[in-house]
Design brief:
Layout (H helix, E strand, L loop, with lengths): L1 H18 L3 E9 L6 H4 L3 H8 L7 E8 L9 H10 L3 H4 L18 H8 L5 E5 L3 H4 L8 E4 L4 H12 L7 E6 L1 H9 L6 H22 L7 E8 L19 E7 L5 E2 L8 H9 L31 E5 L18 E4 L20 E2 L9 E4 L13 E8 L8 E4 L11 E7 L7 E7 L5 E7 L6 E8 L4 E7 L5 E7 L12 E2 L14 E8 L5 H12 L15 H7 L11
Parallel strand pairs: 1-5, 1-6, 2-8, 3-4, 3-5
Antiparallel strand pairs: 2-7, 6-7, 9-22, 10-12, 11-22, 12-21, 13-18, 13-22, 14-15, 14-21, 15-16, 16-17, 18-19, 19-20
């Protein structure tokens, strides 16, 4: 009987052990002023491990590179710090500008660390920051251990790493790094200066020290960590604080046992951090009236294809000197040239982008030129159309808003459809390359702008997803790949007009694009950022899309291609 009892007790013991809940622990790290595209333009090894689910065994990685600051205030630091901490937007917490941080209503809208201690009085919370009372105003709860490091980010990280090695380790912590914002204001957020990239890399080293201290904890195997890294805003040139997409595209990265692997659906927001962290500790937020929802549990519905040419509909590599554009997609629809054919002719010129000709579109205000893509009207009439347009362009500085591509009547503001145009700007941005699409309110949403490297070839891509995202990407001569993303759930993309090259959907816009285009491609699906980066990086090496169409971006070859770091001088003039 005793011999039978021993194995039964062993089994029951094992079951009890397996069902013992792990201790929930959490860490939020905020990098002030970190652009989302920094993750591919700087060597952020630790951040990439969190995002890819390779940080520690059993931990998944969920990420979004189209995170959103609050939309009822401009993209200033302290308004978004308050939303990250308090889980509500400006209308509730009261912080609009940096100098109004003292107005944060932390009594009516406590920070999530306070709410956690209310629900779980036995836990410990910790808050370290860089901007003194401006940050502490979001909490003002002496139950929360706190310390102002005054911008000394190295000391900030070292102190938290030491805490994790001690018996006083907090169950929940928030740590804010200031350096990227400080450097961005001096050297530039975009185009991404070397100093700004270095600041991001230094923050990643600091993050690595803290993550190392967490993983080295003797009790780590018995703990259930949720780690989140985010930013309060992006930046453009040496500025932020407006409602442009450069400032309003941020990274949100989660690592945990219970998050999805891969890209998160929709638009995770800074204010969603509060509900996400409280849910990790099983705190019910339903009665708190937060502007915050739990994120990290739903994956995006779109992802990479097995080959880059999957769902490719039109492709114009411009391989021969001809007065006709020939679609390289076998059996694909063609195109019709309009305007004066004498103007519209691919030319071979010294210093071409690839080893083949490229498209030069002439014309003038009296003779608009372009190419109309056959059967393209229906492409944008589908509900939630998933479409990608990618191309290379070399622009000579000209006056006017030239249209490179479009299916809308650009001369009529707010008309349905979209265009890609040069020479347009948004609030506080310089003239540059923009994506413009129509909204149901009858206005034009401007996405961008990107600085044009005049006289140089640049890569651009437009991606509309079925989840209501409008991505606009730029690849620059220095090898940097940038993106911004706008909400486009209600975008009016179907215009009843065809998609045109070098002109808008009417074909009669008087400022058609009179510069150079190459390797033009249109897909009936949403390409991922990695797929677009592969096309861009191949182009820097002189390879066109047709040379890498069979590439799977999940392969080792693709990873090696994306990891290349070509610098200035590789792109021909």
């Amino acid at each position: 009987m005793k011999k039978m009892l021993i194995p039964i007790l062993a089994v029951l013991s094992a079951v009890a052990l397996a069902e013992t809940p792990k201790r929930p622990m959490s860490l939020v790290v905020m990098w002030d002023g970190a652009r989302a595209d920094g993750i591919v333009n700087a060597e952020l090894i630790n951040l990439r491990k969190l995002a890819s689910g390779t940080w520690q065994k059993g931990y998944n990685g969920a990420w979004s590179f189209c995170g959103k600051p609050i939309d009822d205030a401009r993209a200033y630091s302290f308004a978004n710090h308050a939303s990250i901490m308090n889980g509500v937007t400006r209308q509730k917490h009261g912080v609009t500008f940096n100098h109004t941080s003292h107005l944060c209503d932390a009594k009516r809208w406590p920070c999530w660390l306070s709410r956690l201690l209310d629900a779980k009085p036995g836990l410990k919370a910790y808050f370290s920051y860089a901007c003194g009372d401006h940050n502490w105003a979001t909490c003002r709860d002496e139950r929360v251990a706190h310390r102002d490091f005054g911008g000394k980010d190295d000391e900030n990280a070292a102190a938290l790493a030491a805490l994790y090695a001690s018996p006083d380790a907090p169950d929940a912590a928030v740590m804010m790094f200031e350096e990227p914002d400080g450097i961005g204001h001096v050297k530039g957020f975009y185009p991404m200066s070397q100093e700004y990239r270095k600041a991001l890399e230094t923050c990643d080293v600091r993050l690595g020290k803290v993550l190392g201290a967490i993983a080295a904890r003797p009790t780590f195997a018995d703990e259930d960590w949720l780690i989140l890294v985010t930013s309060d805003h992006g930046g453009y040139h040496t500025m932020h604080g407006w409602k442009d997409t450069h400032s309003h595209t941020t990274p949100i990265i989660l690592a945990g046992h219970h998050v999805v692997n891969g890209q998160m659906a929709g638009f995770p927001r800074g204010q969603d951090i509060a509900a996400t962290m409280l849910a990790h500790f099983s705190v019910d937020v339903s009665g708190m009236d937060l502007d915050s929802i739990e994120i990290g549990k739903k994956a995006a519905s779109w992802g990479p294809a097995a080959k880059l040419d999957d769902s490719l509909v039109w492709y114009y590599p411009i391989v021969a000197r001809t007065k006709y554009l020939e679609n390289a997609v076998k059996g694909g629809p063609g195109s019709v040239l309009f305007g004066d054919e004498e103007y519209f002719n691919p030319k071979i010129m010294k210093g071409r982008r690839f080893a083949t000709p490229y498209l030069w579109i002439g014309g003038d205000e009296d003779v608009p030129c372009g190419a109309r893509l056959n059967d393209s009207v229906d492409l944008f009439l589908r509900p939630g159309p998933a479409v990608t347009l990618a191309f290379w362009a070399k622009t000579v500085k000209r006056e006017g808003r030239q249209v490179l591509f479009g299916n809308k009547d650009f001369a009529r503001a707010g008309s349905p459809g979209f265009v890609v145009t040069s020479g347009l700007h948004t609030e506080r941005t310089a003239n540059g390359m923009c994506l413009v699409f129509a909204t149901p309110e009858g206005r034009d949403e401007v996405v961008g702008t990107y600085d044009i490297e005049y006289g140089e070839w640049g890569f651009y891509a437009v991606v509309f997803t079925g989840e209501g995202q409008a991505w606009f990407c730029q690849g620059r001569k220095d090898g940097c790949f940038h993106w911004v993303c706008a909400r486009a759930e209600n975008a009016l993309l179907g215009s009843g007009l065809p998609l045109c090259i070098g002109n808008d959907g009417t074909g009669s816009y008087k400022w058609n694009y009179m510069d150079f285009l190459d390797d033009i491609a249109v897909w009936k699906r949403s390409l991922t950022l990695d797929e677009l980066r592969c096309i861009f990086k191949a182009g820097l090496q002189g390879r066109q899309l047709k040379d890498v169409v069979a590439l799977d971006v999940r392969s080792r070859e693709a990873r090696d291609l994306m990891d290349t770091t070509e610098k200035a001088g590789v792109v021909g003039k």
